[in-house]
Amino acid sequence: MTRPRILVVGAGFAGVGCVKRLERRLTEREARITLLSPFSYQLYLPLLPQVASGVLTPQSVALSLRRSQKHRTRIVPGGAVGVDTAAKAVVVRTITGEYDVEPYDHLVLAPGSVTRTFDIPGLADHARGMKTLAEAAYLRDHVISQLDLADASEDEAERAARLQFVVVGGGYAGTETAACLQLLTHNAVKRYPRLDPALIKWHLVDIAPKLMPELGDKLGSAAMKILTERGIQVSLGVSVASVDDENVTLTDGRVLPCRTLVWTAGVAASPLIGTVGAETVRGRLAVTPEMTVPGVENLWALGDAAAVPDLAKGEEGAVCPPTAQHAMRQGKALADNLVATLRGEALRPYTHKDLGLVVDLGGMDGVSKPLGVELHGAAAQAVARGYHWAALRTHVAKARVMTNWLLNAAAGDDYVRMGFLASKAGTLRDFEYTDAYLTPEQVREHTGAFRGAAR
Q1: Please, are residues 113 and 267 in contact by the beta-carbon 8 Å criterion?
Q2: Helix 395-411 and helix 378-391, axial crossing angle in degrees, nearest 10
Q3: Kind and range of the H or E element at 44?
Q4: For residues 211 and 224, what is the distance between their CA atoms, to the nearest angstrom?
């Protein structure tokens, strides 16, 4: 009997959690497991702001998928750019830019999300993101380069513009990014005696009326106080009207001369979901509480790309937020249901009560709400770092992160640029490949040979 082929798309929290559970529960004779990912690592996304600020090295948050020799999953280096459910095949764009096709018997979609953007003049050409490891490393280089260029310039207007930074998005990613990078420039300017520290200005902009509303009014106000005391100007109810090479224009009419716009205004499901041809909920694939896709045989979805019903809330239409704690637990629950399907057993719905949220604002500052307990300051920061450290999947990663934290606390940073994309601006499009996905017609051109076999 032919072993069923299980294809898992995405090596984030959801995809890796699913694969590891499948490896533990299925014997080699029961199924063949394939993991499709552009990179051979799982990115610990919540710690990216600390990579951008130089507290952590990039390698410390990139957890290798190939370190263990005992795992039998086949890893395909490439990105899924189209799904043909009729042919039971996925079109893959390999890391060399060529196209290949991966057939499957069961498909698990965990492609995650991309940075959500809007049709704002100049945004696509000038905004920088914080969604990938490459973006974080590049952003650090870019910020340090602005200090170098400002220090070298004799033009006061250029110097001021290079030392003004705008971060858009008052959620966790934006708030942590602004907080950590502000600390970077605050500490780095001490190495630039020609620069006036007062010229360094950070702006955090968000269209929402509150900062991180999920934390509640008290902790939101505490975070606002921490940021403003550091000199970060927080503007709520405001967004970007346009951006060009030298200015960011806000919707309240202000024009900010600057060369750095960091865009973290939310996420959207991976464009891969648009190629599936199934029902969506606000761009995320509609799934049952068991994480199956209704009406499509042997198709599963989870994580940021799926609208998994949030049964713990008890509200009709509620879906799980796109957070790491849900993604990790959904991966295990989906794997259990997939194993149950292969063995003819009953499926179980996914349910998990939110355990709270943690926000590391760098230094000795943070705001956290573990199990409903509201904390801010050093205690919250300790909880945030303790949670992230415990959630790291491997002992090697834990050792690297702890070593980085201790070394940074003891010796500080050297503020060294690596020279990434020195000849051009690295924008969202350059790092997230959102224009790489195929149309349904293009998908069928690649999967034509598989359509008859799937019937």
Answers
A1: yes
A2: 150
A3: none
A4: 7
pLDDT digits (tens, 9 = 90+) for 185-240: 999 999 999 999 999 999 999 999 999 988 889 999 999 999 999 999 999 999 99
CA distance 288 to 291: 5
Catalytic residue numbers, as ranges: 176
Q: Is the dihedral of CA 143, 146, 148, 150 positive or negative?
A: negative
Could you tell me the CA-to-CA distances from 262 to 21, 133, 169, 236, 427 in Å, in that order? Answer: 36, 15, 9, 16, 10
Do 202 and 182 contact (CB within 8 A), yes or no? yes
Q: What is the pTM of this model?
A: 0.94
Higher-confidence position of 428 and 6: 6
CA distance linking residue 295 with residue 106, whole number of Å:
14
Instruction: Judge whether 366 and 359 are in contact, CB under 8 Å.
Output: yes
Question: Using one digit for the tens of pLDDT, what is the confidence trace for 271-312?
Answer: 999 999 999 999 999 999 999 999 999 999 999 999 999 999
If you ran DSSP here, which 8-state letter would residue 311 be given?
T
Q: 3-state DSSP call for residue 109?
A: strand
Question: What is the phi/psi pair of residue 296, to 5°?
Answer: -125, 120
Q: 389, exposed or middle or buried, with CB in 10 Å at 0-12, 13-18, 19+?
A: middle
163 neighbors 146 (Cβ within 8 angstroms): yes
Residue 455 and residue 92 in contact, taking contact as beta carbons nearer than 8 Å: no
Residues 6 or more apart whose Cβ sits within 8 Å of residue 311: 289, 349, 350, 351
Alpha carbon of residue 446 to chain centroid: 29
**Is residue 220 within 8 Å of 170, Cβ to Cβ?**
no
With beta carbons less than 8 A apart as the criterion, state whether 9 and 93 touch.
no
3-state secondary structure of 154: coil
Q: Based on the number of CB atoms within 10 Å of its own CB, is 454 exposed (0-12), middle (13-18) or buried (19 or more)?
A: middle
Concatenate the DSSP letters of all residues of 401-449 into one string: HHHHHHHHHHH--------TTTTS---HHHHH-TT-PPPHHHHHHHHHH
- Phi then psi dihedrals of residue 340, to 5 deg: -60, -40
Q: Could you give the residue ranges of the DSSP H alpha helices within 307-377?
A: 324-342
> HSE-up of 263 (CA within 13 Å, CB side)?
25
Of 437, 455, 445, the residue nearest 87 (C-alpha):
455
